[in-house]
């Protein structure tokens, strides 16, 4: 089944981590660590179902060999406590209808989206289930004793190892500096440094899988997560009856079983990540917590018969489509679409010729980029721009930003994640006028931030938008419906102009989403396309 499991960690010398050893283990290749002289070989393990080294554009061909890449990674680090690589383990789906090629495509596209596209190299290895006594799926220890793969109990735990460089690739070598801009957020918790967004990889993996299933017409979705998260218990040898971890896990299981008998709690779980659900998805969720057939059917009937449940129908034929939503979800989406219409009708005039010229100064735009630019600097308060990675979306947004700054707008750049927000800041958002131009009369310095931090500032009076504010939201398709609705409501109240940029064919929203697609259908969206040959960005 498709699940949202993803485990992320850094390999650090201070804890015995070795990029060469992990690369050897994942690929089942014999590799010698040139720094220490140690030779690692895991030939006694089953070979991976798929092995590849994914390199960014412009990388030297020799780095496609694991031994070369990871000896470079080790050689680039001098400190005893250096972090030599990052690793993410993904649970791969085994649903009926999915093939080995599907699993490889899912893992590879995830790696390219989040790491290779940002200049890092990734060694990708897909492993089949580890088979133990009696044919049961089990977790075995990795090269340093850590668990290899998803949690124990998944009988068919196909999984992928993504071993990722901490430095960008520059030709046939690694950069002199680490890619710190891609590091996860670190905060001080209880006097100790802690990575605070580790759980996000599981959420991103869930969204990535669901987007793949939709694009390929597969009637599969990642299982809804439990209402009460269960703690990590650890390997079998540590599961001592009565231990604290086991007691906490048993308590979480009892609480989930109780909530699974509450129709409102079940509906909340099913619509947390998607706007609608099928009877099959409901059955799978209930089966995880209710094992009595009669009780299962009783709870199922109470969920589908709940007063808040709406059966969805084809708008043309009127026939039921086998999907359900809730009145709360429908009301939330309708309110957001109404706010979107109000923002679109806002009184924002087309920018002057002078401001447009400032935006284009020093930039060459393709025909599709120029069409998107003209739409963004034209009349109206809501602009939607569709653009996949590699189409020059950032280049186009930079021109739009500079033109609005020259016209006296405060430009606020927002993103769902801190990484994308940092990219926007590097592209000039929050730095005032770009390309050497001066801001227009009355303009205010803008800023780049995450969507959630900006909403927090607005709600607490620490920031304000007005009729001369342009809010640019990159990767807007990643936003869930609730947050998109909050942004549009703020724009309606303040009179701000909004530009939503993203691509709903790639990574969808982590929580309940789909509004980007709905807004695009209602208001239209110029699309950026990948250039067929070299040329302007």
Could you describe the 3D structure shown?
This protein is an alpha/beta fold. The protein has three domains: 6-214, BirA Bifunctional Protein, domain 2; 223-327, Arc Repressor Mutant, subunit A; 345-528, Rossmann fold (3-Layer(aba) Sandwich). 35% of the residues lie in helices and 19% in strands. It has a six-stranded parallel sheet with strand order 19-18-20-21-17-22, sandwiched between helices. The protein has a five-stranded antiparallel sheet with strand order 1-5-9-6-4, sandwiched between helices. Helix 1 (19-27) packs antiparallel against helix 2 (66-75), helix 9 (327-344) runs parallel beside helix 15 (481-494) and helix 10 (353-360) packs antiparallel against helix 12 (393-406).
Question: How do you describe this structure in short?
Answer:
The protein is α/β, with parallel strands linked by helices and 537 residues long. 35% of the residues lie in helices and 19% in strands.
Any descriptors?
537 residues; alpha/beta; BirA Bifunctional Protein, domain 2; Arc Repressor Mutant, subunit A; Rossmann fold; six-stranded parallel β-sheet; 16 helices; globular; disordered C terminus
């Amino acid at each position: 089944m498709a699940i949202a499991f993803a485990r992320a960690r850094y390999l650090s010398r201070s804890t015995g981590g070795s990029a060469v050893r992990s690369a050897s283990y994942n690929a089942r290749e014999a590799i010698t660590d040139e720094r220490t002289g140690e030779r690692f070989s895991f030939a006694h393990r089953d070979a991976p179902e798929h092995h590849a080294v994914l390199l960014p554009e412009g990388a030297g061909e020799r780095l496609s060999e694991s031994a070369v890449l990871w000896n470079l990674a080790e050689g680039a680090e001098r400190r005893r406590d250096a972090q030599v690589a990052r690793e993410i383990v993904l649970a791969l789906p085994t649903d009926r209808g999915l093939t080995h090629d599907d699993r490889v495509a899912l893992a590879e596209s995830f790696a390219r989206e989040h790491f290779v596209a940002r200049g890092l190299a990734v060694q990708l290895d897909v492993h089949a289930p580890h088979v133990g006594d009696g044919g049961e799926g089990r977790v075995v220890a990795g090269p340093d004793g850590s668990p290899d793969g998803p949690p124990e109990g998944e009988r068919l735990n196909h999984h992928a190892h993504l071993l990722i460089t901490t430095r960008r690739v520059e030709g046939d070598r690694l950069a002199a500096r680490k890619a710190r801009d891609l590091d996860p957020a670190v905060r001080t918790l209880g006097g100790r440094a802690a990575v605070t967004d580790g759980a996000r990889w599981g959420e991103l993996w869930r969204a990535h899988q669901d987007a793949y299933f939709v694009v390929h017409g597969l009637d599969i979705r990642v299982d809804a997560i439990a209402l009460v998260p269960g703690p990590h218990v650890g390997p079998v040898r540590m599961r001592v009856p009565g231990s604290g971890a086991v007691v906490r896990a048993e308590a979480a299981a009892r609480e989930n079983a109780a909530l699974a008998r509450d129709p409102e709690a079940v509906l909340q779980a099913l619509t947390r990540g998607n706007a609608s659900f099928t009877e099959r998805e409901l059955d799978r969720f209930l089966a995880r917590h209710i094992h009595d057939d009669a009780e299962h059917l009783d709870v199922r009937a109470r969920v589908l018969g709940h007063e808040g449940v709406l059966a969805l129908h084809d708008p043309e034929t009127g026939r039921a489509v086998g999907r359900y939503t809730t009145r709360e979800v429908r009301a939330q989406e309708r309110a957001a679409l109404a706010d979107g219409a109000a923002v679109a009708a806002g009184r924002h005039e087309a920018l002057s010729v002078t401001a447009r010229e400032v935006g284009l100064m020093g930039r060459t735009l393709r025909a599709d980029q120029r069409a998107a630019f003209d739409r963004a600097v034209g009349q109206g308060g809501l602009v939607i721009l569709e653009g996949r990675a590699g189409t020059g979306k950032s280049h186009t947004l930079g021109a739009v930003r500079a033109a609005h700054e020259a016209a006296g707008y405060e430009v606020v750049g927002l993103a769902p994640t801190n990484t994308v927000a940092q990219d926007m800041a590097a592209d000039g958002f929050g730095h005032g006028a770009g390309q050497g131009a001066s801001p227009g009369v009355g303009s205010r310095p803008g800023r780049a931030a995450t969507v959630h931090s900006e909403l927090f500032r607005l709600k607490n009076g620490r920031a304000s938008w007005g009729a001369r504010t342009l809010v640019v939201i990159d990767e807007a398709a990643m936003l869930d419906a609730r947050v998109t609705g909050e942004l549009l409501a703020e724009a309606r109240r303040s009179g701000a102009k909004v530009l939503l940029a993203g691509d709903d064919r790639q990574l969808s929203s982590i929580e309940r989403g789909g509004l980007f697609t709905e807004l695009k259908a209602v208001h239209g969206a110029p699309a950026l396309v990948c250039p067929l040959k070299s040329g302007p960005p």
